[in-house]
Specification:
Elements (H helix, E strand, L loop, with lengths): L9 H8 L3 E2 L8 H11 L5 H21 L4 E5 L5 H10 L3 E6 L2 H14 L4 E6 L17 E5 L9 H12 L7 E7 L4 H7 L6 H17 L8 E8 L4 E8 L3 E5 L2 E5 L4 E8 L3 H10 L4 E6 L5 E7 L1
Parallel strand pairs: 1-11, 2-3, 2-5, 3-4, 5-6
Antiparallel strand pairs: 6-13, 7-8, 8-11, 9-10, 12-13
The protein binds S-adenosylmethionine (SAM).
S-adenosylmethionine binds next to helix 2.
Length: about 300
Amino acid sequence: MADSLLLPSLEIVQGLLQTPAHIAPKYFYDSVGSALFEQITRLPEYYPTRTERQIMAEHGGAIAQQVGAGATVIELGAGSCEKAKDLCQLLAPTHFVAVDISTEFLHDAVAQLRVALPGVDVRALAADLTADFALPHDLPQQRRLLFYPGSSIGNFDPAQALELLQRLRGLIDTDGALLIGVDLLKDQGILDAAYNDAAGVTAAFNLNVLSHVNRLIGADFELSQWRHRAFFNALESRIEMHLQARVDSVVHWPGGERRFARDESIHTENSYKYRADDFVQLLARAGFARTQVWSDDHAWFALFLARP
Ligand SMILES: C[S@@+](CC[C@H](N)C(=O)[O-])C[C@H]1O[C@@H](n2cnc3c(N)ncnc32)[C@H](O)[C@@H]1O
């Protein structure tokens, strides 16, 4: 049984047939990919999760004061819901909705969250943020807080990020807000290390996309023929993740095939790194004119509370 929302997809085949080939990062997240991402968050090299939680711990009181009790919190790309648990304990919302593409992992995380937050109406919504998705029709419209942590916005190029932020603006009224976590530009060595951990967990996460694609489109990628590659592209201000062919190969799926030469790459992820001021401007262009920012001592990561 498919363990994600995604139907065997024309999008995947089209991406594989392009040069350079690419697979969208949302396909990382089957149940195995989601579990591997949780391991990544605990790696010594992977500072974003730790740093964002630190900022929340330090400035949670100020955030709670701004948002107030009794809001409706909607987390986009909720994953394990660990950050949501921290946030909901601070904010005491009436409703919490976890939105994620990784269906089984989402339902397990939400079941645990319900136990931790007995007074909150906790829901799971399996949906793809890159498509049009609808929130539950009976969800309060007033005082919605969209929570988009983990710098997932960095997976979109600036034009796509603007389009997504504009769509998010459409989900809230003028009394709503967006709390969004963004990874900031920093020393290249720290960035490169975060995506090339010594234990090889990020490599396993990257390679797992091929197992997921094998299941989704019936392809025959042989994982041992591919290697993980991640590096900072300073010109584009982004980390790029690729899978590079170790050997010449032909990958087949029902109705098609793709020949890969040795060393050819499949581009699997971008993770854009922002200057805080540039992100404030992006938010303003998307309709979030009033923004407050909290960061850590090294200015590695920032949390933006943005209002229409
Ligand atoms: C980088 S993880 C962040 C998880 C968690 N929010 C955190 O901050 O640690 C990205 C999460 O977004 C989900 N995701 C990725 N692409 C998505 C999409 N297009 N639609 C919905 N969820 C998506 C993944 O399944 C994963 O749980």
